[in-house]
Design brief:
Elements lengths: L16 H10 L2 E4 L4 E4 L2 H8 L5 E2 L2 H4 L10 H14 L3 H6 L10 H10 L4 H6 L1 H11 L1 H4 L4 E2 H6 L1 H11 L6 H16 L9 H23 L5 H6 L9 H32 L1 H9 L4 H11 L8 E3 L3 E3 L2 E3 L4 E4 L1 H4 L34 H21 L22 E2 L3
Parallel strand pairs: 2-8
Antiparallel strand pairs: 1-2, 3-5, 4-9, 5-8, 6-7
Length: 415
Amino acid sequence: MSLVYEPLASGPRPDPYDLYRRLRDEDPVHWAPESEAFAISRHEDVVHVLKHPEQFSSRANQTVLMNANIPFTPRSIRMLMGFIWKSRVTPWRMRRSISLIASDPPRHEAMRGIVKRGFAPRMIASWEPRVRELVDQFMKAPRDGEAFDVVTDLAVPLPTTIIAEMLGVESERRSQFKAWSDAIIALSSGSARDKPMDGDLINHFGGLFAYLRETIRARRARPSDDLISVLVDPSHGVSLDEVDLIQFVVLLLVAGNETTTNLIGNAANALLDHPAELERVARDPSLVPHLVEEALRYDAPVQQVVRDAREDTEIAGVHIPKGAVVVPMLGSANRDERRYPEPDAFRIGRDTKGHVAFGFGIHFCLGASLARLEAQAALEALVPELARRARRDAPVEYIDSFIVRGRRNLQLEAA
């Protein structure tokens, strides 16, 4: 019986790893007819795709993910006109704008260079006191013995607050930022992409784009010490119009919270599933950095990315025609037996070198060091609570996305 796997199909995926193993063993370059894409599941082949942008273009992040279904009905047209009026941006202009994750050299290097210094090691280290201050704030309730949700009470607010402050926007908009981020994930890689865009999504995007447009204009007039001011600084020599700038900020907003939120939630869940490993790290907190790396490998917060073949080529003996969509499966590569012995075992302290949870090559996650800092601070505080509490018996809801993987909730009983 042939394997059925559609990498671009919507819907949550509670446990994809058995299927990933079968793909690696039986069909490592899998043609998915409904997705019209090749799914690449072995570590060696995934790394090959990611390290060769001259063969595999990142433009697919634009053509595949920015593919909203906008119906032409009287009601939807009214909502769409409301979006255009509020944001002063047309959806068609948005589609022509190339974001950082969809860019190829040489534009990619120029765009990445604009914000690179904002994520330099020295800059990230300077955020550590604020990260730990926020962790202490969000951990007050569980330390007082109250019931606690790891995701909604810690993993969501921590990175959302930090990226808001880095961008220079009001931290009180944190819940609004999360709603905007969720809407982007749903529309780009969730079930919402398969349906006509509804009024709530249109309103979310209208509000987001209008807010960012005003903020960008304010920073042009009065620069400050934040990432948006860096983006609008004309001295960088990269021509970014207003829509390009909005897209850039949206990318920083989404990437700045989704990866870390799901890293923290997935790590906590893995610890609760493996009490012996939880006990080890509770006894020896110096293992937390190793915990973070094993969590990234074991249950990657970003499961796959997309690329376009720029020329006729071949992967593992399979012909890939020019223009084909290729899906490097990061979550599968990190569980490849050819790279990691007993990959389905969660083992803190194993050699995780070479995992691709943050990507590989020129598109390696710009905020990886920030995500690691936030996750380490959160888990250092969280591990003692996980060790003395039970997981509440509640329905588990996973994020509806073929790109990101994580739980929407992880409730702990009161102490």
